[in-house]
Amino acid sequence: MSTQERFLEDYDPAEYPSVALTVDLVVLAVTGSTLHAPFIRRGMHPFKDALALPGGFVGPDEDAEHAAWRELAEETGLDLATHRAHVEQLATYSSPERDPRMRVVSVAHLALLATDGRSLPELAPGSDASAAHWKPVREVLDHEELAFDHREILTTALERLAGKIEYTLTAAKLVPEEFALYQLRHVYEAVWNTEKLDAGNFTRKMSGALIGTGRKVARSKGAPAAVFTVRSEYLSPPMARPAATSDH
Questions:
Q1: What pLDDT digit, counting tens, does each position of 91-124 carry?
Q2: Which fold has domain 13-163?
Q3: Contacts for 35 with CB less than 8 Å, ≥ 6 apart
Q4: Of 29, 35, 210, 216, which has the fewest CB atoms closer than 10 Å, so is most exposed?
């Protein structure tokens, strides 16, 4: 028996404090010029009936990302695998007081869900969620109490995205793979929580990072709009973020 095998044979995990691992998800999507995210109503304690982000415990045989996808599907019925979606780790939350049950560390994820800007996928509550709904993110921050440290997680996700779209085409992950410029502009307005951006200036800023498809799409108002795809991941020069219209 090797020294490592002897060490592991004598090793007792119970000698160390137990820490549970969870995941939480901020899933962002845009309709019109409004940023939405799915929230659940917790069906059990702690924080029973409180509004919360989807999430839950990581199973013994899964990693954090798989747990995030599973928990989202179980609590909201939203399967990201059936949509155009981008998922990345946001941050790790490890305050000893963040969960009243025990020491719980959460790996938060940010998901960007592409939409046509007109509708959002239907949600269906499940698992320990008594309800699941898309809600405007700014309204939640302004008027709702959130369970655990989910307000901090949500605020961090918004700031991460707001900063990234200044210098990258991350905003294009919230629209179809081929899109009209007004759809992309609405994403910027929603994420930055700003009044309508100047269409002409926006077009000039985006011209070097996009490539036209040669097609046009009909609009409910005005002339048909040209359709583009992303040419470059980065914006040069970056977009200047205007002052937000609220504190959030």
A1: 999 999 999 999 999 999 999 999 999 999 999 9
A2: Nucleoside Triphosphate Pyrophosphohydrolase (3.90.79)
A3: 28, 29, 136, 137, 138, 158, 190, 191, 193
A4: 216
Fold agreement (13-163, 167-230): no
CB within 8 A of 40, min separation 6: which ones?
51, 52, 53, 54, 75, 76, 125, 129, 130, 131, 132
Q: Is the pLDDT of residue 221 over 70?
A: yes
CATH number of the 167-230 domain: 1.10.10.10
